[in-house]
Amino acid sequence: MDNTPQKVALVTGITGQDGSYLAELLLEKGYMVHGVKRRASSFNTQRIDHLYQDQHQENVNFKLHYGDLTDSTNIIRIIQEVQPDEIYNLGAMSHVMVSFDSPEYVANVDGLGTLRILEAVRLLGLTKKTRVYQASTSELYGGLAENKNVAGFYDESSPFYPRSPYGAAKIYGFWITKNYREAYGMFACNGILFNHESPRRGETFVTRKITMAVAAIAKGKQDCLYLGNLNSQRDWGHAKDYVEAMWRILQQDTPEDYVIATGVTTYIRDFVIMAFAEVGVSLRFDGEQEKETATVVACSNPLYQIALGTVVLRVDPEYYRPTEVDLLIGDPTKSKTQLGWKPQYDLITMIKEMVASDLKLY
């Protein structure tokens, strides 16, 4: 009989893409999982509804708490009540473009919200018990070529140069996590995660926007997809792989920071090509910058016939960021060697899953 005490995890942002996959992983590993969700007048739990249990039953392993990273007393109360072994701070305002419109809010949630969690752990005397994972981001690097390592990648030692209010807020979260680790001996780690997607990705993020548009256009529900900078390049992985890395980071003997990435970068334009290929549609791109368009030149799937010559993509300068990040590519060497982490999904497999999922929506 296994007498090992059940581990308890607290996950902020549990209703999001990463939170839902992480909750599934932790439940599979036998954890008691507590999630923090913001109160809203509309339902926002669709990603985790399949995990919810009747709270009146015995041995319930999944519970939700109303909370907000802008409310320190609320955070202290939840952590005091839950007494977690591990905290995964995934809660954030994570849309880069929107952060330009709400810079104060994103600083409060993404920056000071991290401080509130760390300070709660300290004030409650849990620095030796509770391990903290902070969700950092590749947006810390800003995409500057001179900040890459000699191999042409961003790694744990690459300088930061955030190019958005989101990146600037997250840089505070990164450094305050490191500071609490060094000042108070806290097991607190940053996972610098590069872009990771899935069918559960929010509908306003570019990858999901693309796959939803592909499905809608193929089904005759939409005429055209409008995007911003098609020349941006991103290092895309699958969220399922990346939450596995989060968990591994908190299982190490010593707290450290890790880059989680695939080491492969892809143009947004090429992501569009691959997504349309999943419905048998081939495209030709013409023009440059805001004049660029994508036209249908072939349809090989009899289920999804679009008239040849139809323009299915246009560029809208409204989607350009005030400061663009053109290239992101991470070096996962440390995470592979020290964590034993290896992604199970490649980009094509992820896009196939996302398009198939969105086709079902229509």
Description:
The protein contains ten helices and 15 strands. It has 362 residues and is of the alpha/beta class. Helix 1 links the parallel strand 1 (8-12) and strand 2 (32-37). The protein has helices spanning 17-28, 72-82, 96-101, 103-123, 165-184, 206-218, 239-249, 268-277, 333-338, 347-361; strands at 8-12, 32-37, 62-66, 86-89, 131-137, 188-193, 196-197, 225-227, 233-234, 237-238, 258-260, 266-267, 281-286, 293-299, 311-315. It is globular, with a radius of gyration of 21 Å. The strands form four sheets. It has a seven-stranded parallel sheet with strand order 3-2-1-4-5-6-11, with helices on both faces. The protein has a four-stranded mixed sheet with strand order 8-15-14-13. Strands 7-10 form a two-stranded parallel sheet. The termini are far apart.
What low-confidence regions span 5 or more consecutive residues with pLDDT below 50? none
State the total count of DSSP E strands.
15
Into which percentage range does the β-strand content fall?
15-25%
Give the SSE order as H and E letters: EHEEHEHHEHEEHEEEHEEHEEEHH
Distance between the termini: 49 Å
Classify the secondary structure makeup into a structural class: alpha/beta
Dominant shape: globular
Rounded mean pLDDT is: 93
Question: What spatial order of strands do you see in the largest sheet?
Answer: 3-2-1-4-5-6-11
Helix content: 25-40%
Biggest sheet: strands, sense, closure? 7 strands, parallel
| Oligomeric state, counting identical vs distinct chains | single chain
> What count of helical segments does DSSP give?
10
Radius of gyration: 21 Å
